[in-house]
Specification:
With about 270 residues, this protein is α/β, with parallel strands linked by helices. The protein has helices at about 1-15, 50-55, 65-70, 80-90, 115-125, 145-155, 165-175, 190-200, 220-225, 240-250, 255; strands spanning about 20-30, 35-45, 90-100, 100-110, 135-140, 160-165, 180-185, 210-215, 230-235, 260, 265-269.
Length: about 270
């Protein structure tokens, strides 16, 4: 939950801060034998928000200006999900912002202390698989998401090509071959669903496509599959889960080439 919360908040700061800085400040407020009370502040010098919007920031599908959604992508669900996660952790969140000045988000929650020995044993048990040498097209408009995914993939010796939106991805796929595509859903210009439909229908490509989504809702997953995607993973992803998923969809390329697509569903012969 902590990873998802920071992913959403820092992702927003990166998206809406063009000049200046973004600071992340972490403090231990209380230290107990098995847990700690933590305070994390994310402070940016971005576009900011007016007071009326801040007071409604946790409402679903709430965005200050429709042009922001068109320019930056997104559905307005990020802060709603963040608030729900913090509530589940019995934590608190406070948002302060000034238009054209910046935004400060402070969260406070309790977290259990980890066990280094158990973590080491878990790491040693991980299955050794290889995705080395794969050509990956990463379609993602958020800079933080790009950095996280690219670093993970390059660690496993993949060649990564980035596209900031679906339109760029379609143009690249018309010229280059890739072994797998990681496709964000909410993007400006051309979103992941529309891009996938073009890739399957107009380009006729059967390259495996994994959806990168922040919302694991049944309706959204159904849209992904209907458009022609092979699988989905929620953000922030667990590195091991992503690597296993990529391995599963690329290890049998002969099988992958047999995938047939229709406009409503996909199936394997």
């Amino acid at each position: 939950k902590t990873e998802q919360i920071l992913y959403n908040i820092i992702g927003n700061s990166l998206k809406f801060t063009h000049t200046g800085e973004i600071k992340v400040v972490c403090k231990v407020l209380k230290d107990f034998s098995n847990s700690q009370t933590i305070s994390i502040s994310i402070i940016d010098t971005g576009i900011g928000m007016n007071e009326d919007y801040v007071s409604n920031i946790f409402k679903k599908f709430n965005q200050e200006d429709g042009s922001i959604s068109r320019k930056y992508g997104g559905t307005g669900l990020g802060m709603t999900i963040t608030k729900e996660l913090i509530t589940l952790m019995n934590g608190e969140i406070e948002v302060k912002s000034k238009k054209n000045k910046g935004t400060s988000v402070n969260i406070i929650f309790n977290i259990e202390k980890g066990d280094e020995k158990l973590h080491r044993k878990s790491t040693e048990k991980k299955q050794e698989i290889s995705i080395s040498g794969l050509r990956v097209l990463l379609v993602e408009d958020n800079e933080l998401n790009q950095i996280v995914a690219e670093n993970s993939l390059k660690y496993f010796n993949c060649t990564v090509t980035k596209a900031d939106n679906g339109r760029i991805a379609v143009d690249l796929l018309a010229k280059q071959n890739f072994d797998i595509i990681l496709m964000d859903i909410q993007m400006p210009e051309l979103d992941g669903i529309e891009a996938t439909e073009i890739i399957r229908r107009d380009l006729g490509l059967k390259t495996p496509i994994i959806a990168l989504t922040a919302n694991a809702f049944k309706t959204e997953i159904e849209k992904c599959i209907s458009a022609g995607m092979n699988d989905y993973i929620t953000k922030p992803f667990v590195e091991e889960s992503l690597v296993n998923m990529i391995f599963r969809h690329t290890r049998g390329k002969k099988e992958t080439s047999k995938i047939l697509w229709s406009s409503k569903k996909h199936y394997t012969t």
